[in-house]
Amino acid sequence: MWQAIWDFLTSVPLWEIALIFFAKVIEVSISTLRIIYINKGFRSLGTILSLVEIFLWVFIASRVIMGITDYPLKGIIYGIGFATGVYIGSILESYLAVGKIFIQAIIMREEAGKVVQELRDAGYGVTVIAAQGKDKSRKVLMIFSNRKNKQDIIRRILELDDDALITANEVSMIQGGYVNAFRKLAK
């Protein structure tokens, strides 16, 4: 039995298994990014990524399909590479954080001045609205930003008001408003 398992695992050269696995990981990661970029409106970049993706797919799939009945390990490695590529693609997407977000923070009125000043000093545009909670007056802060800045904004708010209620939503379009000159360059 152990000999049969060993023969199965060594039926395909290690270099070919590695090639199939890593090429599939790269292809699926590119595919994940392509979908995200196209959904965010970056059609040109999405088109370029699709060209690379399809070339990889054709060569990888043909390598696996040829002889899959003789070497089923190729199909297994192909599937594992696909799943790994989806995972790595999602990590890459969160690292790149493409797009815009809209953050709303409901904070204590007393804390509002400090929080707004901190965010504005950091270069974020903040709109403030007076609000009334159940028992107390509040302020609602509205901030539009790049997704890359989400954690920084939330951290700054919570450092000054740890009871703040914060929501963040992705935005498909922003036109007008205040954008710090440095932030325009650093997009």
Verbal overview:
The chain is α+β, with helices and mostly antiparallel strands and 187 residues long. It has two domains: 2-96, no CATH class; 100-185, Alpha-Beta Plaits, CATH 3.30.70. Helix content is 59%, strand content 17%. The chain contains seven helices and four strands, in the order H-H-H-H-E-H-E-E-H-E-H. Strands 2-3-1-4 form a four-stranded antiparallel sheet. The mean pLDDT is 85.
Keywords for this entry:
4 strands; 17% strand; elongated; 7 helices; 187 residues; Alpha-Beta Plaits; 4-stranded antiparallel beta sheet; alpha+beta; 2 domains
What percentage of residues falls in helices of 4 or more residues?
A: 55-70%
User: What is the structural class?
Assistant: alpha+beta
**Shape annotation:** elongated
| Average pLDDT level | 85
What's this, in brief?
This protein has 187 residues and is α+β, with helices and mostly antiparallel strands. It has 2 domains: 95 residues, no CATH class; 86 residues, Alpha-Beta Plaits.
Detail the topology: elements first, then pairings:
Layout: H1 2-9, H2 14-39, H3 43-65, H4 73-96, E1 100-108, H5 109-121, E2 127-132, E3 137-146, H6 150-160, E4 165-171, H7 181-185
Antiparallel strand pairs: 1-3, 1-4, 2-3
